[in-house]
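=== Structural record ===
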Amino acid sequence: MWDTFAHRWLRLPYTLHIHQDVRGAKKPRATVLFIHGIGNTGASWQDVMEALPPDLRLVSIDLLGFGQSKSPVWAVYDAKTQARSVLATYLKLRLSGQVIIVGHSLGALVAVEIAKRYPLLVKSIILCSPPFYREDPVKRRLFPESDRTLRRLYARMVTHPEELLALSRIFKRLGLVNKSFNLTRDNSASYISALEASIINQTAFDDAVRLKVPTYIFHGRLDPIVIYRNLKTVAQRNPNITLTTVLAAHEVEGLYVNAIAKTIDEIASTTPQDSSHDGTYVL
C-alpha cells in the first residue's frame, strides 16, 4: 500500500536494480552508465563492459518494468518516467560529476530524455541503434514511409500480445535478440506499455535535434527497425552529434562491441565539461 501511495500518488520515482557496479580503480577516469533496450536487462552490456579498460567505473541497470527492477501495473513506462528513475538511482549511488551514458534501442531514447532534462549530469551520450521515428510529412497510400509502417507494426503488437509473444520466441530461437532478452506472459504488460509510451509515441527525434551535450549515434547497417534517414537528418541538424555506421544488425554484438568500447575510452579521456551545479535535480 505504501509503495503505491509513494510512487503513484506522491509521484516519487523508483530506484532501479543495479545489475553491475564495477569499480576498477579508486579514482576512476570516468563513470559510464549503461541503459539496455526493450525486453533486455543490464546483462546485455556484458561484452562491452569486458572490452573496456579497468580504470573506469561501469554501472549497468535494469529499467523500470524489466529485469529485477519494480514493475508496477499502473505505471506509464514512458521515457520521462524512466529518466526520473535513472536520476533517483544516480543519486542513490552517490555518483559524483558527469557520467557517460550509453543507451541501446529503448535505452537510447531514455538517454536522450536524461540529456534533455538533466544536461549538467551528462558528459556525453552514446546512442546505439536509436529507433527515432517521426510522423510522415506526406500521407501516402502507396509505398508509405518506413516510420508509418513500423509504427503500424508496433501498434499491432500492442493490440495482439499473443502474436508478440510468438514472434519473440522465434527471434530468440534464431538468435536475433540479445541473450538477456526475456519476454513472457507475466512481464508482457510492461513491455507493451514501454513500446507504446516510449517508442510509438516518442518525442526523441525532435529532442535529439536540440541536444547540447556531445552525442554519438551508432547505426547497424543491417538493422531492420532503425531508419538511417532519420538518424542522418538528426545529425545534420545538430552539430553536437556524430553519426557512425557499423557492419552489424540491431543488437550490440561483434564489431559493434569494439566500436562502442573504443568511443567510450576516447570520451573518458577528454576534458570534462563545466559541471558547476548546486547538486540539486528536480525528480
